[in-house]
Every structure is written in structure tokens, then in C-alpha cells.
Write a structure and sequence with these properties.
The complex is a heterodimer of chains A (182) and B (101). Chain A has helices at 3-24, 28-48, 52-77, 91-113, 131-140, 143-165, 169-174, 176-181. With 182 residues, chain A is mainly α. Chain A folds into two domains: 1-81, Four Helix Bundle (Hemerythrin (Met), subunit A); 135-182. The termini of chain A are far apart. Chain B is 76% helix and 0% strand. Chain B is elongated, with a radius of gyration of 17 Å. Chain B starts with a helix and ends in a 13-residue tail after the last helix. Classes of the chains: A mainly alpha (182), B mainly alpha (101). At the A-B interface, helix 1, helix 2, helix 3, helix 4 and helix 5 of A face helix 1, helix 2 and helix 3 of B.
């Protein structure tokens, strides 16, 4: 077994385990750590797919920013981040049935598509997934979406600050009755 | 080498886990994490297909943009969770019924 195959099997196992921990754990911090495990494993999977730039981006953006943001909010909320009653009634069974149906549907599609044997990956080109090649594509072919993403980030920053900051003191007095009703 | 289908099956597994978690859990923070799981699963299929058909880097660039949009979504989503918590003192998605009646 080559190194790439071993990396694939280890990373896929930890990714699935982390995903299950993400949805099953009761403590939100453990949910976040499960998500961190899944995301780090996916960076390893990107490495087996010759996507070094994406693996680095995954680790920097997700493990470095998104997970930290989640943990920050969990710490801010304290014990209120984990309500006592989370699931309700027979709903999990229906959701499980929906999930099983979705999974079996996707697996059937893959099985039909794979008729004629699993498709082996062709040998990778030398420049596939390097920073230089991906960066050239981003700044030539995908320049307009890239600029749109920068505008999206600006809007997201302003929106997040406006939402998380909430109403200030003098505004709270004016809308105090509204809040009492709710 | 690992065949293409193995990556697709793994992505389907993780996507389903994320979808079931989104339906079952009532904690908004966990539901946002399940959204991230599903987006990541789709990214794996994009990168795997790019490895399979390597004429250009369309799949990897698409996955890059998905990561960017997911980061923006997480920031705004968590800000909405904080706003809801300030209003209702709870992060249960059942409590978000301000528009009901």
C-alpha cells in the first residue's frame, strides 16, 4: 500500500468519525472538535488529490478562522450553548429515514455510474493544484467571481458587526415595550 | 491509486451525516456546524473530479470559492445566533418563531 492510499484510508476514517462526533456529542465544544477533526482530515484528502493550495487554504480558513469563531461563540454563551432538551419526539427516526434514503440514492447513482469498474485516476500533471497554477486560474479566468467574493466579504463583515453588536442603550429604551411582548 | 468513486462515496457519507445532524439537532450552533460538514463534503467531490479531469483547475477554484462563501456564511450565521440569543436567551432553533402569529 502506497503512502497516498494509507493517507486516504486514515483521513477518510477520521473524517467520518469526526462527522459523527459533530452531530452526536452533547457538549458544543466536543461538536466543534469533531468538526475540526473532519476538516483537518479533509485537508489530508486534498493532499492525496494533488490539491496542495486547497489543503493549505482549508487549514488556514477553517481550522484557523471558522472553528475559532465557533469556539469563541460557544465560550461567549457559556452553559446556555447546550440547551437541556435538544431533540424532540419521534423526529430523529424520520430524519434518520430521510438520511438513509438520501445516502442510498447517492450510492445507487454512484454504483450505476461506476458500472464498468471503478474509474482509476489518471497520472497527475506536475502543476496540478500548485499555488502558481491555481493562482493563475483565479486571477485570469475567475477574476470577476474573485472580486465579487471580496465584496461579499465586506458585506459579511458589516452585517456580522451590525447583527452581533445589537441595539445600543438609547435605542433599547425606545423599543423596550416591543421586547417585553415577545 | 485510489479510484474516483471512493472519494464520492466518502463525500456522500459525510454529506448524509451532516444532513441528518441538521434535521435532528435543535441547537443552532450544531446546525451551523452541520452546514459546514455538507459544504466540505461537496468540496471533496469537486476536488476529486478535478483530479480526474485535469484539463484546467475549475474544480479546485470552485472549491476555493465555496470555502470563501462558507467562511462568510459562518460569520453572519454566528452573528445571527448571537442576536437570537440576546432576544430569547436561548440558541434552540425552535425558539426562533418571532414571525409566527
Amino acid at each position: 500500500m502506497s503512502f497516498a492510499s494509507a493517507l486516504f484510508w486514515v483521513c477518510s476514517l477520521t473524517a467520518v468519525l469526526g462527522a459523527i462526533a459533530t452531530i452526536a456529542a452533547r457538549n458544543p465544544i466536543r461538536n466543534a472538535m469533531g468538526l475540526l477533526l473532519t476538516i483537518s482530515s479533509m485537508a489530508g484528502l486534498y493532499l492525496t488529490l494533488n490539491a496542495e493550495f486547497l489543503a493549505a487554504t482549508q487549514l488556514i480558513v477553517y481550522a484557523g478562522a471558522v472553528i475559532v469563531l465557533f469556539v469563541f461563540v460557544i465560550m461567549l454563551l457559556g452553559p446556555d450553548a447546550s440547551p437541556a432538551t435538544d431533540t424532540r419526539g419521534a423526529f430523529p427516526r424520520i430524519a434518520g429515514a430521510v438520511g438513509l434514503g438520501l445516502l442510498s440514492l447517492m450510492l445507487t447513482v454512484f454504483a450505476l455510474r461506476a458500472s464498468g469498474g471503478p474509474h482509476e485516476m489518471p497520472p497527475a500533471r506536475a502543476e496540478l493544484g500548485t499555488v502558481e497554477a491555481v493562482g493563475t486560474t483565479i486571477f485570469t479566468k475567475a477574476l470577476v467571481p474573485f472580486e465579487l467574493v471580496t465584496v461579499l466579504f465586506l458585506a459579511a463583515i458589516v452585517g456580522a458587526v451590525a447583527l452581533a453588536r445589537g441595539k445600543q442603550k438609547h435605542e433599547t429604551v425606545a423599543t423596550g415595550t416591543q421586547r417585553g411582548e415577545s | 491509486m485510489i479510484p474516483l468513486e471512493y472519494y464520492l462515496v466518502l463525500a456522500a457519507l459525510i454529506f448524509t451525516v451532516g444532513a441528518v445532524g441538521f434535521l435532528v439537532r435543535r441547537n443552532l450552533l450544531v446546525q451551523l456546524m452541520c452546514l459546514e460538514l455538507m459544504l466540505n463534503a461537496v468540496n471533496v467531490t469537486l476536488v476529486a473530479f478535478n483530479r480526474f479531469r485535469q484539463d484546467d483547475h475549475a474544480g479546485q477554484v470552485f472549491a476555493f470559492f465555496v470555502i470563501a462563501v462558507a467562511a462568510a456564511e459562518a460569520a453572519v450565521g454566528l452573528a445571527i445566533v448571537m442576536a437570537l440569543y440576546r432576544l430569547r436567551r436561548s440558541v434552540r432553533s425552535d425558539e426562533a418563531d418571532l414571525l409566527k402569529n
